[in-house]
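W.,

You were right to be curious about this one. When I first looked at the sequence I had no strong expectations either way, so I just let the prediction run and decided to look at it fresh. Below is the sequence, 141 residues in total, followed by the output.
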Amino acid sequence: METLMGLINDPGHLAGYGPIAADTARELAMHGPWRGILLDQYRHATAITTDTYRPTALMKEFGHVSAGGTCTAPGCASPIQEYDHITPWPTGHTKPANLQGLCRWHHHRKHDNYTVTRDPNGTSHWTTPTGRHYTTHPTEY
């Protein structure tokens, strides 16, 4: 963190590569999502950030179960192929309450001026670019 903040010039570490110059580490950190690892005074890893762009395997499994394995877009019965943030990341965190499983087609359509909101009970509300409203409900078991 001190290197990224410019307080020191210790080298960074690029996974799969090794040590990199401090300037290079700062440049890479500015242009992409990254995960922070907290080190103790002995330089042992003690914690890792959990809020990343990509959902974990467990989050995907939870989304698959809660949606019954099918796309959560209104009227679609295609299998889930991708996961999307309802509130865009990084404003919206990567957590099950902010993720929805979609087929590829609906994932790309959603970014064409569709809006989606979700109630605490899992009900989703879709609004099309023309102003039509649709509601979907989570799978009940």
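Here's what jumped out at me. The chain is about 20% helix and 25% strand. And, maybe more interesting for your project: The longest strand covers residues 45-48.

Coffee later to discuss?

I.
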